[in-house]
C-alpha cells in the first residue's frame, strides 16, 4: 500500500488531501461532472452521482416499492421510515454489485422541502408541511440509507435546496423568502439530517431565491456547510447549470456562470447526461480566463472525493460484500412494504361502518380499484396487490372500473382502432369504443377497448393505441376536450397541438381551425354501472384519486384541490345506490372532498402504497389492523383557502397549520382509530424554564375501547405574547403508542426550549423571549385534549438600532419583492408598484439625528418617503430622491436630512415609484 490515500487507518481528510495532491489540473476538472472521469494512472475508477431512491430503488428494474414519501411520513413512525431507508440501501448495494456503472451509491433522496402548498406538483415526494417533522423523518430515512457503520452504505443527498414548491415556471421564478421564513421554516427542514451526519450531500433547486439562482446561493457555504464537521457534497439538479446563462440569464456566458457556481459551493455538474465534454470545457475556459483558480478546484473535488472515501471505494476490502441480489424484493422487504403501507393508511372519517363486519359481497369500484400506479421516482413494481386483490382474498367481490365507455364520431365517420395488441394508427372508419379516464385538471386519457391499450401520440404526430397508460417524462397519452359548436376538439397536452383527421388518419396539427370536431357518444355510463354493482353488494368500496403522472407531478402543478369531476360523479352515484359505501382515496396530495365528508360514512386516504397496498388496505378495512396513519399536511376545503402559489411567506399569508386560522376539512395531524383514547394527568417537568433547559411533557393515554389501537400523541406549544407574529400552534414532539383494550400508558415528550426560538430580524440571530407559553396535547393540531401553561425566562428584544439596517431585515411589508443586492451575496428590497412599503418596528429615534443615508438603485429613479407609525398618513421624517443608476446592482448612496423625532416609533420606508431598490439604510449624526 504505497499511496497514503489507500490507507484506511489514516483520517479521511489526510487521505483526500494526499489524493488531491497527486492529481493534475485536467484530472481535477474531470471530477466535477456527474459522470466523474477515471484517473487510470492512480487506479481511480469512474464514479457517477445520482441513483434515485425516494421510496425504494428506482429506474433500474424491479425492486421493492414502498409507499410514496408522503405516505411514509403519514406513519408518524421514524423507526419504520429508517427501516425502509435501510432496506432501500441494501437493494442499491445489490444493484451496484451487479452493475457498478448503472447503480451508483450516491443516492438522491430524501426530499425535505416542506410541503407549504398542496398544489405543488411534487407534493408526493415530500414529508410534511411542518419543517420540524420533515427534519425528523428526513433524518430517519437518510439514516437508514447511510447505514450505521463507519463506511457509508449509500451517500444520501437532500433535495432540493431551497424554497422550492412550484413547478410552474420553476426555472425562472423567484421564491420571495423573508429572513424569518428562511430561518424558521425552510432551513429548519434541511438542518437535522446534515447535523446528524445522516445526509452527506445536498442538491440545490431549479428556482431562484430572492432573485438569485439557488445554485449560486451563498447559503451553501455560509450555512449548510457549517452544520457538519465533514465535507458536504453539493450536486446540481439535472440541466440546472445551463439555466444560469440560459433561461435565467443570470450570467452572460457558460464559463462565467460555472465559475460562480463552483465558488458558491457547487461540486458536481449534472448537465448533458453522460456527455461531460461540454461542461468540462466551460470549466477549463473559466480557468484560462482567471475566473477560477486551481485552489477553487481543490475545494470542490475535496468535497466530491470525500464521499467516495467514506463509501469505502479506496479501501482494500470491498464494503458490504455480504449483500447480494437475493436481498432485492426479499420476503423481509415485502413484509416491511406491507407494514409501511398499513401504518400509512389514514382514516379520515368513520360513522361506524368500519371495520367491515363479515360482509358476504363487496363491490370494489373505481379507476384505481384494480391498478397500482408508479410515480416518476417509483421503482418498477415486482408484483401488484391492488385493492381488488386484497379484498377478494377476504370475501366475494364484484368489480366495476366505473369509467365511461364512449365513441368519437366525426363528420365523415367514427374513430376506428386496431385490435392488434401492438396497436396501430387511429383512423376514421368502423366505430371503435374507448374507455374515458378523467384525471382532473381537464386531463383525459382514452383506452381502446379493441386491444386494451391507451391512445398515445408517436413522434410522427400520429395517434396510436399502443401504450399501457400514461407514462414517461413527457406524458403523451393525455388530452383536453375543448367545447366547440356541435362537439369537442381534442388538444394534446404534451405538445399543445390539436387532433385532426388527415386523409383518414388521426394526427396532430398546429392549426386550431384544422382540428376535427367530434361528437362524444356515450355507450355505457361508468357511474350507472358502478351504481348497479354497489346496489347488489353488502358494502361498496370506491377507490379514486390521482394518476401520479397526470395533473400534479414534476413540471406540473395543480390548479385546484377538487376530485376529477367524473370521479366525483362516480362517488355520488355509488353512495346513492348503497349508503354502506367506503371512499378510499389513493393520492400523493390532499383533495377537497367536501361532499364526501358530508355524505360518505367512511373515508380512507393513503398515498400510492407500493406493491403491498391491497393487502394493507384489506388489513385495515376488515379490522385486522388499526389504521395507523395521521395527516402530515392540512386538507383545505378549497384552493381559495390558499395564498398565491408563488407566495412563500407563510407568516404573512397565514399559511400551513402553523398560521392558518380558518377551519380546514381535515387538520394537520388528523387520523382516526377504531377505538377511543382518553388523555389525563398532563404534567410538566417545570413551569418556569431557561433557554438552555428542556421541558418534559408527561401525559397518560388510555384505550377506552374494546380493541387494540394506535394513537399518535402530539405535543404542540403556543407562545402567548411576543414582539412578532407567532404560530397558532407548533408541533414540538410526538409519540406513537399501541394500546390494548383498557391499557393506559404514560408517555414522555421532551421539548428543548431552544426549539421555541424565532429569528430576530433586529439582531440577525435566533432569540427566545421572556414570555408565557402553553403546552397543548392531543390527537391532532385541532383535537387538543389537555393544556398546561409554562413560562420561559428569555430576553426582551430591544428597540431597533437605526445606525445600520439591512432593508431585507424589515418586520412587515406591502408591495415589495426581495431581490439580490449583488451577484454573489446580499438581499435587497425592490418596490413592485407605487405605495409599497417596509416597516421597522420599535425604532429607537432617541439616539439618531441629522441624516438618513440609503443605499439605493433604480434605472428610472424615484422617491422614497420616511414616515413614522403609518405608511399613508404618518409624520414625514424625510424624503429621499433616488437618481437613475446604470443597473439594478449599481447602488449609490442617497441621503436626506431628518425632521426632529424622539422615542420608540415604527419607521416606514414608503416607495413612491415602482422599481426602486433599497439595500441598506442608516441614521447618522
Question: Could you characterize the architecture of this molecule?
Answer:
With about 900 residues, the protein is an alpha+beta fold. The protein contains 18 helices and 48 strands. It has a six-stranded mixed sheet. A six-stranded mixed sheet has the order 10-27-26-25-11-12, sandwiched between helices. Strands 13, 14, 15, 16, 17 and 24 form a six-stranded antiparallel sheet that branches. β22 and β23 (about 505-510) form a beta hairpin. α12 (about 330-345) crosses α17 (about 615-620). The mean pLDDT is about 95.
**Mean pLDDT over all positions:** 97
Number of domains: 5
Oligomer class: single chain
Euclidean distance between termini CA atoms: 69 Å
Q: Low-confidence segments, ≥5 residues, pLDDT <50? A: none
Instruction: Count every beta strand, where a strand is a DSSP E run of 2 or more residues.
Output: 48
* Main beta-sheet annotation: 6 strands, mixed
Strand content: 25-35%
Number of helices, counting only DSSP H or I runs of 4 residues or more: 18
Give the helix/strand class.
Answer: alpha+beta
Gyration radius from CA atoms, angstroms = 30 Å
Per the CATH scheme, the topology name of the largest domain is TIM Barrel
Shape: globular
CATH class of the largest domain: Alpha Beta
Helix content: 10-25%
